[in-house]
Amino acid sequence: PGRSRLLGPVCAGLVAAAAALWGGSQAVWYRVTEAVPGGGQQVVEVTGAQARPAFGGVALLALAGVAGVVA
């Protein structure tokens, strides 16, 4: 009885964590203005996946945690 009562919130929390990690990896974290040859400037956007590549893997681990909790 006690375990089944906690199953839903734990699974929801793991899914929410995975979604937040994935969203953070897709979002633009910062923009950098670089000089380009010929005198111009270019804006380069850096996403979370470029800044912290492990976020995608940790998100998958959180989803795998749902299977572990349910099993």
Determine the number of helices (DSSP H or I, runs of at least 4 residues).
Answer: 3
List the strand order in the largest sheet.
1-2
* Major sheet details: 2 strands, antiparallel
Strand coverage percent: 15-25%
Calculate the terminal CA-CA distance, rounded to whole Å: 16 Å
Approximately how much helix is present in the residues?
55-70%
Count of strand segments: 2
Mean pLDDT value: 91
Structural class: alpha+beta
The shape is rod-shaped
Q: What is the rounded Rg?
A: 19 Å
Order of SSEs, N→C?
HEEHH
Query: Uncertain segments of ≥5 residues (pLDDT<50)?
Result: none
Describe what you observe in this structure:
By secondary structure, the chain is α+β, with helices and mostly antiparallel strands. Helix content is 65%, strand content 24%. The protein has three helices and two strands. It has helices at 2-26, 48-51, 54-70; strands at 28-36, 40-47. A two-stranded antiparallel sheet has the order 1-2. A hairpin with a 3-residue loop joins strand 1 and strand 2 (40-47). Helix 1 (2-26) runs antiparallel to helix 3.
